[in-house]
Design goal:
By secondary structure, the chain is α/β, with parallel strands linked by helices. It has one domain: 3-Layer(aba) Sandwich (UDP-N-acetylmuramoyl-L-alanine:D-glutamate ligase). A nine-stranded mixed beta sheet has the order 3-2-1-4-5-6-7-8-9. The longest helix has 20 residues.
């Protein structure tokens, strides 16, 4: 039998993508590709393909909590990652369950609000709950440019805007912030990681492709997998038991490189924004 004692485990609380390119399906693929183990609590069901989101059915909050309870009472987790949560009621239930069941569990919050196709994935009235209950308590929050703009209530376009947005999110309570620049128009994609010790900029060539469905979910989950592996490998931690800045920086660099290669190797599936080559 193989030794699983060093296998980092990630509990993902997110929505399902019937097209397999984003959401829970992408999360599982990306986490397993890092050599970590993925468990799930599905927060919403979507009828979705490469052309867009045709329908959304939120999962009852109590059942989301039941899924979390099942995982945390048996398998456990080294990281928790949240994605599409859809409603205020689900967000409140997830936050309460995490505080009750695993209050010290490091949490990566991917504030999923809009799909690649432009379809809304978060109710307007749920924004404040997402921010106050999850974003402000995250080890790491990973908004793209439009999400960073909504969270900080200011335009986020330039690198200076990204720095200000990261500062705002960390001042509100997030331990670290990764502002993703994929929604920009420059030839080079610039991502900014803000840590307690300073900021780091990562640059990748912008690839000419429409196969970008699920890039945000994939990056957040790959990053969660890398952090979970570091946690069980006894990587250096800060005084509060969180992975140190060097660990977060290395995990981010590895996850960004993985997503870049996954876009390069994307299969040509569907008539719209296709999935990555996870």
């Amino acid at each position: 039998m193989s030794d699983t004692s060093s296998l980092g485990k990630v509990l993902v609380v997110a929505g399902s993508d019937s097209g397999g390119g984003a959401g829970i399906q992408a999360d599982i693929k990306a986490i397993m590709a890092q050599g970590a183990y993925a468990t799930t609590a599905i927060s919403a069901l979507t009828a979705q393909n490469t052309l867009g989101v045709q329908d959304i059915s939120p999962v009852p909050p109590a059942f989301v909590v039941s899924q979390m309870t099942s995982i945390l009472s048996d398998i456990g987790a080294d990281m928790m990652k949240t994605g599409m949560l859809a409603t205020r009621e689900v967000i409140e239930a997830v936050a309460e369950a995490r505080d009750k069941l695993a209050p010290k569990l490091p949490m990566l919050v991917d504030p999923v609000m809009v799909a690649t196709s432009g379809d809304k994935l978060l109710q307007d009235e749920a924004m404040d709950a997402l921010q106050s209950l999850l974003v402000n308590h995250a080890l790491l929050v990973t908004p793209n440019l439009p999400e960073a703009s909504l969270l900080t209530r200011r335009d986020v376009d330039s690198i200076d805007d990204m720095k200000r947005a990261a500062d705002t999110l960390m001042e509100a309570g997030a331990h670290a912030a990764l502002i993703k620049g994929g929604h920009g128009n420059d030839r080079v994609v610039t991502d900014l990681l803000a840590l307690q010790s300073g900021m780091h900029v990562f640059e990748h060539e912008r690839l000419a492709t429409t196969n970008t469905h699920g890039t945000g979910c994939t990056l957040a989950s790959a990053l969660s997998g890398q952090i979970a592996k570091a946690m069980v490998a006894d990587a250096p931690r800060d005084s509060d038991g969180r992975p140190d800045d060097a660990t977060l920086r290395q995990a981010t660099e590895t996850a960004l490189d993985y997503v870049h290669q996954a876009i390069k190797s994307a299969p040509d599936i569907g008539g719209g924004n296709g999935p990555l080559g996870h």
